[in-house]
Amino acid sequence: MFATLSAITGLWSARPTKYVIGAVVACGAWMYISVLNNQIEALQLSNQNKEQLIASQGNEIDWLNDSIALANHATKAALYEVEQRELIAQQRLTKITQLNSQLSQFKLKLNALEHTDEHVQSWATEPVPAAVVSLLNHTRANSEDSNRGASAEATATTTTHASLSYASHDSDYQPRLGDPDWRAISSARNLRF
């Protein structure tokens, strides 16, 4: 570069040449420094943007960590509730099984009672014989005579006649097996022992 300047001006040793060269070097240095300053400012701005981005991402990470903690807490609570419901369901199934077992045992006992004693079943469904009714009425009448007198005998006679007429006029009544004979029971209620 100096060779070109000295060839053009021919005055390398002259003072104006030194000033021109100094001015060119100063302009170059100033331009280089301004470019470096622009690059430094751009890097500082980029660093500030990155720091802001890091801060915002840090806040987002904190928020996500809090959300994860809340979700974990909610998950634990839900798991606890599910476990409690499973425990309750298991207890319910156990109780249902026990009750079904008791029900089947009671049904077996009931069936055994229904089918074992045919004599008791037939006796319970048949009407009370007239002879038994008259015997019971006679016994009652004798005990009431000793306690009450003639008014008790009239009541016993009325009850006996009603029971006997009910038993004798009811020849077409056929009770079903296993059903109580309500007619016989209602007439037996009038009897006093």
TrEMBL record:
Disordered, as annotated region: 140-181
Ranges of biased composition (kind: Basic and acidic residues): 169-181
Composition-biased stretches (Low complexity): 150-168
Name assigned to this protein: Uncharacterized protein
Organism, scientific name: Neiella marina
Higher taxonomy: Bacteria, Pseudomonadati, Pseudomonadota, Gammaproteobacteria, Alteromonadales
